[in-house]
Amino acid sequence: MRCVVFLAGLLACLALSSGQRASAQSSDYTTLTSPESAQHWNLTLGAGLRYQPDYSGSNNYVFRPRPIISLGKGVKSTWWVAEDDALSIGFFSGKGWRIGFSGNLLWERKASTNPALVAVPDTKFGFEAGGFAEFYPASWLRARVDLRRGFVAHDALVAELKLDAIARVGQWSFGAGPRMSIVGADYLRTYFGSYPGVAGTGGLLQRFNAGVHSYGAIAQATYNWSERLSTTTYIEYKRLVGDAAKAPIVKTYGSRDSITLGISASYAFDLGF
């Protein structure tokens, strides 16, 4: 709860400070981009390192690498990129909006790698594919919605709702905002269902219903070494709710609250067309 209060306070501060600059910058989002760079396709590649739960709902933390891949018109500084954004390819954009492809890889999960998973079935390697839409009501505010469907690992719909307040100070960029995810029943069954009669489950919930899966917030700070090279550090808080929070793998063996810390570096390559 303290983390939520901290991030909420940071979001309010960013909104106030950014709002003061908005009148000086102009409400026209095109002022944030250069017409020439906005016409070229750019491929952003990078890598990051996260300290995060071993799996969703786990109270064991591990270090995990994270690839960064994004394709779209305009260099990375053209659009705000949050560290928890899915793989994105922006196909269409205009003044203050962008829509495109959203994808996510789903890694397999086995009890052989973590004994705490003995109570749940193994999960397969898979992916999610769909689309995203993001809007900039003001130069300092981004709203984004992702909607994807799972393949191989699960076949449910997954929706992510994000709101970010953005502040740019010299070569630094700061962002923070709330998060919410909504998932289908098969997603919950796949990642939070347990074998019947497993010791310690106490007959807890085995039926899952689609609905709000988690809420939380993220705060990040990015240093832009150039228009194309940047490094970022961030903190993310997430709280599982609904049926996932009642599942034995979370309620009995794990935790519904989690913190993720991370660092990353990325570079935007101009593809020349």
TrEMBL record:
Q: Give the location in the cell.
A: Cell outer membrane
The alphabetized UniProt keywords are: Cell outer membrane, Membrane, Signal
Q: Does the keyword tRNA-binding apply?
A: no
Q: Which domain of life is it from?
A: Bacteria
- Return the GO cellular component terms, semicolon-separated: cell outer membrane
Record carries keyword NAD: no
Q: Which residues form the signal peptide?
A: 1-24
In terms of Pfam families, this protein maps to: MipA
Similarity annotation: Belongs to the MipA/OmpV family.
For this entry, the protein name equals Outer membrane scaffolding protein for murein synthesis (MipA/OmpV family)
